[in-house]
Amino acid sequence: MIEEIFYDSIDLLQQLISTPSVSRDEVAVASVFEDYARRNMPGEVRRLGNNVLVFSPQFDESKKTILLNSHLDTVKPVSGWSRDPFEPCIEEETECLYGLGSNDAGASLVSLAGAYRYLISKPQNYNLIFVASAEEEVSGKGGIEMVIPSLPAIDFVIVGEPTGMCPAIAEKGLLVLDGVVEGISGHAARNEGVNAIYKALPVVTLLSQMRLPKVSKTLGDVKISVTQINAGTQHNVVPDKCNFVVDVRTTDAYSNEETLELLRRAVEPLGAILTPRSTRLKPSGISENHPVVSRLKMLGKEPFGSSTLSDQALMPWQSLKLGPGDSARSHTADEFIYMREIREAIYVYIRVLDNL
User: How far apart are CA 23 and CA 25, in angstroms?
Assistant: First the structure.
């Protein structure tokens, strides 16, 4: 059965690659996956926007529930592709499958769907829900965030992302902060005004050197980066305002709200105001002693902390990130996945979840 599932998974992945699915334009690819689910994944299939949900047969609310999730969307193809990003191509010598979304996260999506098919073919001590979600690459509100209110209580989640099938037991969150420092305009030829750029310099320096006291065991320090700055209207006017953007990768040592408060306290004495665009993309973490993590360690898969963002950031449940492929291949030209990675992923998902 697993061999049949493997070849079906390769066929499905090629269909997904052939269907352009850039974030917020997933209608067609959601229909492709919905059709596959209705033909191959027993249970109740639902469509919410461009999200496809499958509930295992004989869903029993007295049992615990495991959610399997990966995303349908891709980023836009970058420049530098040497082949058509929407034309799947298998290189026979290496058994390498090229195409946009093959690694991030089509391989995880089809492998989890394959594991779902196997797991529900026999009695399990839990319910399974599968969610193929939209808008992951843009953290959009039409993706997993739309789905969450329609789900029952969830006890554990596997989020399919390229991790080399090693469990990411923690993931950094994200705060994007808009900062501003006010000055007083004046003529640049005379000694007048208060230059907002000069006032902003110590703020930028402080943020570049700032280290928060608590350090996450798995994720390390909160990472603070000033990534954009803008000031001035013309060369002969002293700027009265300096705007800047701060990218903050948060850890499970602090909530996003706590991190924001610490940064505000640090820069406000220097005259800077920080305003978050959102606090919804939260850090997450799970114990190394969780049963699924323990099973993965028995298979030689070492836990780690991930600096990249996924739909985990929007989930209120215990979760880990686990999938075939390599994060370094994501969002690159000539993106690819080895077919053997998909085979291994299906096998590992089944090994850790069967009879859990």
Answer: 5
- Mark 266-295 as b/e (b = at least 16 C-beta within 10 Å): bbeeebbebebeebebbbbbbeeebebbeb
Rounded to 5°, angle at Cα 201 from 196 and 207 = 125
Backbone phi, psi, residue 349, to 5°: -55, -45
Q: 196 by DSSP, 3-state: which?
A: helix
276, 45, 48, 106: which is closest to 175 by C-alpha?
276
Query: Which residue positions in the chain have pLDDT lower than 50?
Result: none
Cβ(329)–Cβ(335) under 8 Å?
Answer: yes
Contacts of 134 (CB under 8 A, 6+ apart): 23, 24, 26, 30, 49, 50, 51, 71, 72, 73, 140, 142, 143
pLDDT digits (tens, 9 = 90+) for 211-250: 999 999 999 999 999 999 999 999 999 999 999 999 999 9
DSSP 38-91: HHHS-SEEEEETTEEEEE-SS--TTSEEEEEEEE--BPPPPTT-SS-TTS-EEE
